[in-house]
Amino acid sequence: MSLKKMLEDHILWLNGKGGERADLHGADLRGADLQGVNLRGVNFQRANLQGTYLRSADLQDADIRNADIRGCIIA
């Protein structure tokens, strides 16, 4: 499943309209542009988020345990 589709399903899940919680456990998201994306509750455990653009992203309750967040752009 593509990242875009997974995040669309995640938004549906957040809004109680079906879909499912995004599970990006172990995903390689180096350099991904996730600016302004609603990532509440996403599982990022052990994901590679090096250099990912997260400016204005909603990371409330996201699980980033053991994720590599070096160089993330959040401000």
Short description:
The chain has 75 residues and is mainly α. It has one domain. Helices cover 16% and strands 0% of the residues.
Explained architecture:
This protein is mainly alpha-helical and 75 residues long. The chain has one domain. It contains 1 helix and no strands.
Features:
mainly alpha, 75 residues, single chain
How are the secondary structure elements laid out?
Layout: H1 3-14
Number of DSSP helices? Answer: 1
Compute the average pLDDT. 96
Q: Summarize the main sheet.
A: none
**Helix/sheet category:** mainly alpha
Distance between the termini: 29 Å
- Ranges with pLDDT <50 over ≥5 residues? none
Q: What percentage of residues falls in helices of 4 or more residues?
A: 10-25%
Proportion of residues in extended strands:
under 5%
The geometry reads as: globular
How many structural units, i.e. domains? 1
